[in-house]
Amino acid sequence: MADIQLGPAHGRLLLRTRREGLAAGLGHDLTIELTRWSATVRGETAVTATIELDSLQVREGSGGALPLTDTDRRDIGRNARKVLRVDSYGTATYRSTHVRTTANGYQVDGSLTLAGATRSVQLTVTTLEANHYRVIAEITQSDFGIKPYAAFFGALKLRDQVAVEIDLEAT
Prior knowledge:
Structural class: mainly beta
Distance between the termini: 13 Å
Largest sheet: 11 strands, antiparallel
Strand content: over 45%
Shape: globular
């Protein structure tokens, strides 16, 4: 079976953050898209991916005391790049170690390298219809040495866990 090459033309790679803390009502739950990434799927046995972290774009913000403005989006993007240390670690990489078929898709075990640290991350791939897949994972920022963003002396902060979602059309 030939390798399948994937990227932004095949789907969207989204990060979903949630807020917590005493001042959580002031902040936003965010949807951030990473617009430059590539992946290779080798049959049903291996997956590799590279994500350019500088490509992050704040797409949506729900909740919060006020609607998310374009200035807010730019500020959040700048803060996210700083928290992720994009100047030092511009890419994240994923390499599968084991792929197994499930009743409705695949379970992919692998290693994610982010901010200079490598940790195990499991992807759940669900087949939605022919050639249409949803990939989900949860990343714990502190596992990678990343301190979740906080403001107002910690009264508003991002949860340590970030949801990763990819809606993918693969032919």
